Amino acid sequence: MDKWIKPLGLLAFIILVCSVLVRVLTNGETLSEYADTNPDIAYATPAPTPSASPMPEATAQPFGTPESSESIHYKEGFFYQPLTDDIIARITGISYPVSENEISPLVISYEDLRYLNVLYYDFNGEVQSGELICNQEIAHDLVEIFYELYRNEYQIEKIRLIDEYGGDDTASMLDNNTSCFNYRVVDGTDSLSKHAIGCAIDINPFYNPYVVFNKDGSGKTYISPEGSEIYADRSQNFPYKIDENDLCYKLFKEHGFTWGGDWNSCKDYQHFQKVIQ
Description:
Layout: H1 2-25, H2 31-37, H3 39-42, E1 72-75, E2 78-82, H4 85-91, E3 113-121, E4 127-135, H5 139-151, E5 158-159, H6 169-174, E6 177-178, E7 200-202, E8 210-213, E9 220-224, H7 247-254, E10 258-259, E11 266-268, E12 271-273
Parallel strand pairs: 5-6
Antiparallel strand pairs: 1-2, 2-3, 3-4, 7-12, 8-9, 8-11, 10-12
Helix pairs in contact: 5-7
């Protein structure tokens, strides 16, 4: 028992000294009182909670037109609907004629057309939101096709209404814009294009040009758009080329479309169209 007396005495002495020091340092306050008057010293300050990092902005551009109550929703970002008043105002006098001096007779009504919103991967691999106008008979085909292209990260440079180019098909092709409805004739003819009834679509047109051959077969006489001549040689390998092995070709064929690349008198490698009842 004696062996514990000295250590216990020493411990008691240390406790007494510490008590005296605390009273001196706190000016006679108890620890509780000192803590209340000096909270910044007495209590540990918790590390600030880091603010949540802002979510990265979506790479897809906002939808051009919101879904209406009549919208057919296929997948997130993929829907089609009748033309709204805003869309009608955007296209009237451009892709949809109003003047008697325009192509006549007018063979399609606003009610025959549908506005589509689709998502796609651009040439930078970023997701964008695109707009199309087409015939109501192929609207569901198109949302299914473009959804599969999107799901497989198939790259399309732009999908904008032709009206953003003043209805000028050449300007749209030069900008490699993918488009559908445009009330116009076939390039170089007086015949209405299938685009005029919204049953044809051009995909990445600069890389998949429209080619007309000499009747004697001596060579190519006309390639559109200007500057895309190098892509008229389909024996070459290059990005964004549509051919029989291309996913875009396969999907459109599965949905009953014909491809302009299969034509004989000319080749329209960008072009898919469907016959409707």
